[in-house]
Structures are given as structure tokens and as C-alpha cells.
Amino acid sequence: MANTLRRRTLLKASLAGAGATVLLARHGRAAAEKPQYGGKLRVAYQLAPGALDPVVGRSGGDAYYWRQFVDQLVDADPALKPRPETSLAESWDVSDPKKVMLKLRRGVLFHDDTPFNAEAVKFNIERLLDPATKATPRAAFSAVETVDAVDEHLVRINLKKPWGSVLSTLADRGGAMNSPTAVKALGADYAFKPVSTGPFKIAEFVSGSHVRFVRNEKYWGRDAAGNPLPYLDEIVVNTVKDPTVQVSALKAGEMDLIYLPYREVGNFLADKTYNVRKFDGGGIALTLQYNRAKPPMDNMNLRLAVAYAINPELINRAVFFNRAIIAKGGMWPTGAWAYDPTVKRPHYDVAKAREYLKLGGKPNGFEMDAIIWPSEVNTPMAEIIRAQLGAIGIKLNLKVYEVTVATEKFNYGGEAPIFLTSWSRYPEPDWNASLIYRSNGYYNAGKIKDDRLDALIDAGAAVADIEKRKPIYRQIDEIVLGEAHMVPMLYGVTYAAARKNLIGIDDVFGWDAKMYLHRMWLKKT
């Protein structure tokens, strides 16, 4: 009964906000100055997109691109609270545990002038459920049975089981709406030519160089004063792999916004020429991702030996200039409601590492491959880990690939038993749980069926009450960390730096710590 009342209250709040103007974090706070229209925002980002279509993209880095041209079926504020005034669904009803009703915003068009309506929503959800699509978020939608277009602006999602996490799940990849017309017309080419409903549309994609976005003149959104959004004429997100080059470009006036490398944070904080913003727990800076079906990491004791042999404090000092956060919980970092620093988990202890080597039948160590993708932090981090594991007799052979290739080779190709990688911030715990720990999750490289985890994941996703969900995700952490399925070592702290004439940097971080650039405008001097 408590859950039902809570859901009805949420629905009433949704209905009350349905007619409100677009405001707050998604599109920027009411500005002290009147925003100026026009101009080109130049951004440097380290990773090239693996795909621009959110549904098939594998890398968390892809979101820095697709967030600029996509609207969510259910949008969320920085606290991951569903927000109807910035959503494509202007209201919803989740009071029935077997169905979700979504009332859609009227008058919205995709960038190719295809109407956004109930049939489009039905198409999008059925597309990601189709195994042939190989949709990254498919496992997170396992509760969905069918989708009905009740009328032009009303959608019913029929459920196999209760789905309490539905609203926050729709704020991520699975809630990104794509034009059915464009998907059908372009086929496989759609991955880099997606068409959505957002404030910007893709004008140009040059592989390895940049993505250029231009204003969607027909965008439905308004700011708090009723002004049309977005303010900028265009955005160019440039792929600049070398952080030193990014910093130099910002200082030279060739870029307006970058994410700061850790070694430069102190310098920029002291320089009043720039505005700097940070996001604690902006992701997982280092995690050990195991393929539990591939020897020698099919042996739990050997996985634990690896985890206990790594000293994250040394890595933090040497690579992150002590600005990262030592991981004390699981894959939900500080600031996420599922974060639990009291759960028992591996920590640096060489004696224990050697003990687990003996328990695993390899007292003198062993040899294995590890996949990494190169970056200013990943490369030295991997070398430190190789040395730390070497100290207990584990020889690590590093296989280096570009991030999208590395992700695919580990999670789909089974090329190595361990992946030394980073991870995006996902405060909705069902996202990580379903995609990493569920038996059919894309990021569960070994695809080992674990009835305990599957049952807990189902239970966690079914409940809406956060206080009832917390102990479920603690149980998941206890299994995952206790058996070393995936072990985070460091939580990241994300820093953004911008030139002073870029207004709106206070809102640069969304709930996932990714860039939301459509809130910004350039002050003409």
C-alpha cells in the first residue's frame, strides 16, 4: 500500500508539472543575465564515439556525444528524480505493477520531421528488445512483455513482472528516442547517422576528428523565461586524445570547454581566467572486470588474489595526484543512493593475496592476458598493476586496443580473462546490476548463469521504495565483491574547465556526470 500511495503521489506531481515551462538542470537555471543567442561552442573530448546511436553504443564515452541531440522518454534531474517538464512523456502512471502508462508530449518532431508519437515509442522499445539489434540496454528491459500504442499520445508498456526502476531506467540509453523512419531507411548506417528529437541535430561526423551539431530550430523546449532553446547555433565536439593538447588548446583560445587531466587541476583552480567545476564520484576511475568463464579467472580464489595484490592508494598518488577516491563499496560510487562503504570487499593485503594464490592452486603465480585501452591515466595505471601483480608471481601481458574495440573484444570476443578499465556513473543501480551481473547482461563477459544474482536483480528492479531496495543491492555487492566478479578500486572525480565567456558551466554535469551542453551560451565581448 505504501508503494502504491507513493506512486500515485509521483503521478500527481508529474501531472502538475506537465504544463510547466522547461527549466532547471536539464536546460539551465534561470540566468542572472539575459542569454545571448548564436555562436559556436568548441569542446575537446578524449574518446571518439563507438557509435552515435545510444541503443547500440558500447562505450560510456558515447554519451558525451548523444546527450547533445537526444531527448529522454523520461528525463531526470541531477538527483535522478524523474522530471516531466523536460521529458518526452509529460506524465506517467506506474501504480499498476503490471503496466506503465506514458502520456506523451504533443507537437514534438524528430529531426527528419517524423512525428514523435505512441507508434514511435512502441517502435523504439521493440527495437531494443529485438535480439538482432544487439542493444546495449536490452537486459535492463527484461521486465517488458509488450508495448501498445493506445492512441496517438498514450503508450502502455505491459510487464511480465513489477518494474520499480522503470522511470530512472528510461532516463538512460533505453529511453532515448530514435526516428523510426531513419532507422528503417539507414539500416546499419544508422549507428553514426542517428535522428532524435533533441535541442541539437547532427550536421557532420568525421571519424577520429569531430562531431558537429547544429541548433534544432523546431525544438519544443523553452527556458524558465519562455525563451526558445537552445541558445547556441552549433557545437563541435572534437576528438583530442592527448590531454596536454586539450589544455594547450583551451589556453590558446582554440577550445571553450575541456575535462581537466588530474595533473592540471591545481593549476586551473588557481587561475581565475577559467571557471572550474567538479563532480565527486563522477564514475569508476579503475575497476577490475573479470571474465569468470575464462581461465585462470574462472577460479574465484585467483580472482581474489589479483584484487588483494593491487594497491589503489599508490595508484591514486602516482596517477591521479591524490584526487580520485579510494573505492570502499561496489560499482555504485559516492553520491549514489546504493553506495555502501560498509560492505566487506577486497583491499590491499599482499599476505592475503598470497594466501588466495595457494587456495587457487597457484602458489607460485601464473601468467595471463589483460585488455586495456590507452589514456593518460590508463597506461601508467596498467603498468603499476602489472608490477604489483608481478611481485606475487602473476605475469600480466597487456593487450592494448582503442576503447570501443577493447570493450567489444573483452565482453563479446572473450579475448582475455581480465579487463582493466574505467566505468561511467550510473546511480540507478539496476543499470549496472542488469548489464554487468545478470546472466544475459552485455557486460557479463562470461555469461555465467547465477540464479542468486538474477533473483536479487529481479527483486531490486521490482521495488520502487529506495529504502527497501538498499538491502537488496547490498546483498548483490556482498556476492559480487566477495567472489570478485567485478572489483572497483578507485572512484573518479570529474573536473570541467571553461573560458569565462561560457555561461552555464554550473549545469554542465547531468546525473550521469556527462556533458549537457545545450544549457550553455557564449557571452559576446
Keywords:
525 residues; alpha+beta; D-Maltodextrin-Binding Protein, domain 2; Dipeptide-binding Protein, domain 3; 11-stranded mixed β-sheet; 17 strands; 28% helix; disordered N terminus
Describe this structure in words.
The protein has helices spanning 2-17, 63-66, 118-129, 166-169, 180-186, 243-251, 265-270, 300-309, 312-320, 350-359, 378-390, 403-411, 429-437, 451-462, 466-482, and strands at 40-45, 89-93, 99-104, 144-151, 154-159, 200-206, 210-215, 234-239, 257-259, 274-290, 325-326, 366-372, 394-400, 418-424, 486-499, 502-503, 521-522. The protein is of the alpha+beta class and 525 residues long. It folds into 2 domains: 2-240 and 501-522, D-Maltodextrin-Binding Protein, domain 2; 281-492, Dipeptide-binding Protein, Domain 3 (Dipeptide-binding Protein, domain 3, Roll), CATH 3.10.105.10. The strands form 3 sheets. Strands 1, 6, 7, 8, 9, 10, 11, 12, 13, 14 and 15 form an 11-stranded mixed β-sheet that branches. Strands 2-3-5-4 form a 4-stranded antiparallel β-sheet. Strand 12, helix 11 (378-390) and strand 13 (394-400) form a beta-alpha-beta unit. Helix 8 (300-309) packs antiparallel against helix 10. The longest helix is centred in the C-terminal third of the chain and has 17 residues, at 466-482. The chain is globular. The termini are far apart.
